[in-house]
Design a protein that fits this description.
Its cofactor is FMN. With 302 residues, the chain is α/β, with parallel strands linked by helices. It contains nine helices and 16 strands. It has one domain: TIM Barrel (Alpha-Beta Barrel).
Length: 302
Amino acid sequence: MNLQVEVGGLKLKNPVMTASGTFGFGREYGEYIDLNKLGAIVVKGLTIKPKEGNPPPRVYETPCGMLNSVGLQNPGVDAFIEKELPFLRDYDVAVIVNIAGETIEEFAYMAKKLDIDGVDGIEINVSCPNVKKGGMAFGINPEDIFNITKEVKKVTQKTVIVKLTPNVTDIGVCAKAAEDGGADAVSLINTIAGMAINIDTRTPVFKNVIAGLSGPAIKPIALRMVHEAARAVKIPVIGMGGISSFKDALEFMIAGAKAVAIGTCNFVNPNCTIEVIEGIKQYMVLNNIEDINEIIGSLKVD
């Protein structure tokens, strides 16, 4: 049985990854699962300087999901390289670093700094909905996506993945902009912009007003967008958004995703990624599938 997939030149032992912002830097979940079993770890989004993030409250439960407004809290790229990367180097797992800049120059600076041993890929975050600068402001403009991708590709030899926002009218155009800019793959979707209101105070729950919705509630939207992106580009697509079981993961792969990333489910079930991997294996055995790649893009549409 072959579970190995290739994403933009990056060979993964299986197609199950973690979604940035939901798995810390790996260390947080290392006590609960064997990190060596994962296809890849995508670490929490990094900025050039340490970032405190947004004021509380930062998370709010919704039916079948959650809103978050963390605001990219992180120790900064230098602290990651010094304190977190050595830990990850001890594991046999691909490490993909998510970067979030406020300017094109910041993205390029971090990508160049991370062009080092122990880092296997760079995920360009142009899709975060709960920061005031950068983030989704870049991701809704195909020209910005193209320019950021192009500049990052100039300074790194690592696999470059562009994380797309769902808060656009045509995801295919955005995916194509990333491909034209030289991206090795695209990942989608990030959280969907939403909000919540306290009816007693008649004020927004979050100081930023707008937050990001994730969890099972967004899966049908994510699945549709992954299908559209996979039809729009020739580069690999990494699918995510509400995956909480191996069946969910297989739906994304049948729709065209080369790999999948699990996010919010990690908060509910720290073992979710491992259960998804084992579930995919069992599905392959029951259906006499020797190679996971036979499933990818196998959707039958009349």
